[in-house]
């Protein structure tokens, strides 16, 4: 087994929810191949008293509950104490920076991540200030907890670790890898519902296949997310193809 490239701890009041979800797909493969270690940490293990209370009423009398600072502090401290590399601490919050493929690439290079999942109204502001290195959002909507956002992050990072995807599945071709959306995909049968798979893909000629994929990636991106083209590294040939695509759509 390869030595783990990334250790990831997820601090949550629902450790089973997180642990179960990570036994599928790329996170599972990343763990089984030894590239990644994932641990769901139960916040209640760091709470006081017989009820192991992790939440409390908000000051100021608004509705809902807030995750208390001390259990979060102890959970992060325990992670800092038990190994050499101190974890990069991420808090999933709708107020964070929108998660992107670039961020996932950067985080996949960290030796150790600790992801805090909020619940209820969120976490005590002082815990955020004391503990958190980076705040990330999965989009402009509010979920009931940070577990699903944490799973989104860990899944996206796991598939970027070297050796997790096979060459054929390479992340290089995915949407956003080069700031373009992915080209459409086809499988057998070659004819279905009166539509055939593009003849370039059926041609068996790698040059034609690549040219077709690049053109369709440019077409998709221009049609659906034109703002991505601003940052994409486009060759002269890409620019020429893009002009053709724009002209085609005018006619
Ligand atoms: N009152 C907070 C939202 C609390 S939602 C606010 O308006 O900012 C409860 C928890 O769910 C949050 O602490 C956060 O961890 C998680 N969460 C909800 N929506 C999220 C999103 N879009 N991205 C990341 N985490 C989210």
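^ structure tokens above, recovered residues below v
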């Amino acid at each position: 087994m390869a030595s783990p490239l990334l250790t990831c701890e997820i601090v949550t009041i629902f450790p089973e929810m997180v642990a179960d979800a990570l036994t599928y797909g790329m996170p599972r493969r990343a763990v089984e191949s030894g590239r990644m270690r994932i641990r769901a940490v139960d916040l209640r293990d760091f709470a006081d008293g017989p009820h192991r209370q992790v939440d409390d009423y908000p000051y100021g009398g608004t509705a809902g509950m807030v995750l208390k600072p001390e259990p979060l502090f102890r959970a992060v401290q325990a992670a800092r104490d038990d190994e050499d590399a101190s974890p990069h601490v991420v808090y999933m919050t709708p107020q964070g920076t929108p998660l992107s493929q670039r961020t996932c690439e950067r985080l996949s290079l960290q030796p150790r991540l600790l992801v805090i999942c909020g619940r209820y109204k969120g976490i005590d502001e002082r815990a955020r200030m004391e503990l958190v290195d980076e705040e990330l959002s999965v989009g402009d909507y509010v979920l009931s907890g940070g577990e699903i956002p944490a799973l989104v992050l860990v899944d996206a990072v796991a598939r970027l670790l070297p050796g997790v995807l096979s060459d054929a599945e390479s992340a290089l071709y995915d949407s956003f890898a080069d700031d373009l959306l992915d080209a459409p995909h086809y499988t057998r049968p070659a004819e279905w519902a009166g539509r055939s798979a593009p003849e370039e893909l059926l041609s068996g000629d790698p040059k034609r296949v690549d040219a077709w994929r690049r053109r369709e990636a440019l077409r998709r991106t221009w049609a659906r997310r034109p703002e991505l083209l601003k940052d994409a590294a486009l060759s002269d040939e890409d620019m020429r193809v893009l002009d053709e695509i724009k002209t085609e759509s005018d006619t």
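The chain has two domains: 6-158, 170-250.
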